[in-house]
Amino acid sequence: SLKSGTTTVLDVSETGDSFKILFNEPIRSIIFLEFAGGFNGDDGLVFGETLAKAEGVFTNDLSRWGISPHSPHLTSPALFHRCLKYAEEHHAPVFIRAGQSAEERALLAGEVPFLLRNGLVPKNTILITGSELEERDLDALVQLNVSIAVCPRSFSRFNRERFPFAKYLERGVNLSLGTDSFALCESLNLFDEMYCLKNEAPEL
Predict the structure, then answer these.
(1) Engineering a disulfide at 69: which of 83, 103, 192, 193 sits with its beta carbon 3.0 to 4.6 angstroms away?
(2) Are 5 and 14 in contact (CB under 8 A)?
(3) What is residue 100's predicted lDDT score, i.e. its pLDDT?
(4) CA 127 to chain centre
(5) Is residue 180 pLDDT above 80, yes or no?
(6) What's the Cα-to-Cα distance from 115 to each of 2, 97, 144, rounded to whole Å?
(7) Do 109 and 88 form a contact (C-beta atoms < 8 A)?
(8) How far apart, in whole angstroms, are the C-alpha atoms of residue 129 and residue 102?
(9) Could you report the per-residue pLDDT of 43-65, keeping only the tens digit for each?
(10) Which residues contact 70 (CB under 8 A, 6 or more apart)?
(11) Gap between the Cα atoms of 28 and 13, Å rounded
C-alpha cells in the first residue's frame, strides 16, 4: 500500500488483530471492529464480547478504532443501535456494508432504504453498497454526509451490474475509491483500481 502511494488503510476486522500490525506502520489507519449477530436477544453479550477484543490496545496519531455493524442481514437492529450509540459517545467512525449484491438487496427489500428508515445510518458513515438507490435515498445520504466506498475490481469480479457512478455524482453523493482485499483482488494498489474504473466508466 505504501509503495503504491496509499495514504490511509481502512480495515474491517472480526478480531482487531490487524491493529497490532498497523499500529507501528507509517500510514494512517482505522480498524473497524466488526459486530454481527444479536438476533437471539443476546445483543448485549455479543456487543460486550466483541468490544473486549479491543481492550488494552491504544490509539496513536496515525491509528485509531472504528465501529462496523456488519450489515442489516447479519446484525440485529438492537445490536446495530448499541454499536451506533457507542460510536456516537466515543466519536468513533462507522463503516457499514449494505446491499452489495442483488440477493442482499432483495432480502430486506433494499438494505440501504431499510437502514435509512430505521435511523441506522449516522452522519459521516462510510458505506459500501452495490445498490442503485432511489433519488430520495441518495438525497438522504447527501444530507447525512455519507461516503460510499466503490471497489470496481470487486464489482467486476462478481459480474455485478455496472455501478451508477454518474447518477450518484449528479446527486452530490461523495464517492470514494477503494480496493477490496486480497481475497478478491490481486493487489491493494489504488492505481490498479483506477485503471479498472477507467474501463468501467470512461466518462468520469
Answers:
(1) 83
(2) no
(3) 64
(4) 4
(5) yes
(6) 35, 11, 13
(7) no
(8) 11
(9) 999 999 999 988 877 788 899 99
(10) 34, 35, 36, 97
(11) 16
Residue 94 C-beta-side C-alpha neighbours within 13 Å: 28
How many Cβ atoms sit within 10 Å of the Cβ of residue 190?
17
Q: Is the pLDDT of residue 68 over 70?
A: yes
CA separation for the pair 12, 39 (Å, rounded): 21
Cell of 105: 438487496
Location of C-alpha cell 488483530: 17
Q: Which pLDDT tens digit goes with each residue over 111-150?
A: 888 899 999 999 999 998 866 788 889 999 999 999 999 8
Q: Which amino acid is at 199?
A: N
Total residues belonging to the chain: 204
Where do we find the cell 467486476?
Answer: 156
User: Which three cell numbers, joined as nine digits, stand for 29?
Assistant: 489507519
- Closest by CA position to 154, among listed 132, 121, 178: 178
